Amino acid sequence: MTDKGHNTIGPRSAELFTRAQRIFSDGTTRATIERNPIPRYLTEGKGAYVTDVDGRRFLDLNGNFTTLIHGHGFEPVVDAVCRQIRSGSCFANPTQHELELAELLVDRVPGMEWIRFVNTGTEAVLFAVKAARAYTGRPAVAKIEGAYHGAYDWVEVSQASGPATWGDPREPSAVPYYRGMPASVLDEVVTVRFNEIEGCQRLLEKNAHRLAALIIDPVPSRAGLITPDPEFVEAVNATARKLGIVIIADEVLNFRQGYQGASARHGFKPDLFTLGKIIGGGLPIGAIGGKREIMSVFGRGEKRAPLPAGGTFSANPLSMVAGLASMTALDQAAFEHLEDLGDRLRARLREEIALKDAPFSVTGVSSLLRIHPKRQVPKEFRDIALSPAESATMEALTRACAASGVILPNGAAACLSTPMTEGDIHLVGDVFAEFLSTHSHLFESHAP
């Protein structure tokens, strides 16, 4: 592998991180920032590539955690935001721009009748859970073990559980995510396993009297980017309907799977959706949408709604025009391009794994993918737990990619963007192939 000087963090990034440690508790303001061994500071993004403060250029497979589906500096978004900011960045009144983005989304997504904008995916999930509670009068929430849904206590439960804590496979433990999480929160969360039909049905039925909602990511990203079995999808739809449990489809990340989103692609029939990331064109955004009868809890003109939901920057015109420009450009042709690139890259990675008989597998769909240091393709969260040797292998892979000018997320979904080309796919495949050839000593000890 040719070392282009990317492997060592540059002196300018090191200098900035030294400054940051004086004012931020851990040197950054986001726990999700990757360090190698310290963060790489970026100064510019254009198309599918970013440049760091030391002048090094990288193919970006992170895309700000899958947000930038059109890459960096997408001209329709730049033009729309520049025009709007001259007219005003935010108001205490509605604008026509929120109508236009809302109409696009409601027209596109089956089952989304009404919609409401907020500022982040976390807020969208938070208000969706509250809406389910307000609608059903029940307090508890069911969620998939290991799935990530943002920073709301009830959906953080069992987000980072592991072999030492996840408990009985028939009845997974409710594991606190942070020190000091109230025990009352744990009592109000039922953890179920993805693609495990019998256990999911049994736990939903057992707790139906207190469950407001089942929140489910159609392809749980943090839990392995694993696709759902059709039988599991059918069971979730039928069981929740029978028991009067609101299905919340968290598509904040996975909405990029197709023109109508992930639920439509995989057959889920949610009552509510949560959206974010790509619908904001690179600006902060979140949205809750779904059936009118449930969305009505946010109010229909009465003085105080059953569930009040404000937000100083919700539906701000900058996010609205950026999102409209981004989503308008995401037509069927754009999704077909992304699907083709994703299929080609996953096929190339699997080809290299087979050629070298390496202990790896690949998951993902459409423009998303994830590499696992395991021969067996995972079916659920418990399958992706890494040994120390496997963790070291993935860290080495991330460093090797950086050494050849590719930013590959470690332990999260990688994503493609519309400006990427066949040449970019070849670059990633070549880097991975060379890694397998030159680093086999790292994974010879992996479990079979």
Automatic annotation (TrEMBL):
Its cofactor is pyridoxal 5'-phosphate. Pfam families: Aminotran_3. Transmembrane segments: none annotated. GO terms for molecular function: pyridoxal phosphate binding; transaminase activity. CDD domains: OAT_like. Keywords: Aminotransferase, Pyridoxal phosphate, Transferase. Belongs to the class-III pyridoxal-phosphate-dependent aminotransferase family. This is Aminotransferase, class III. It comes from Rhizobium mesoamericanum STM3625.
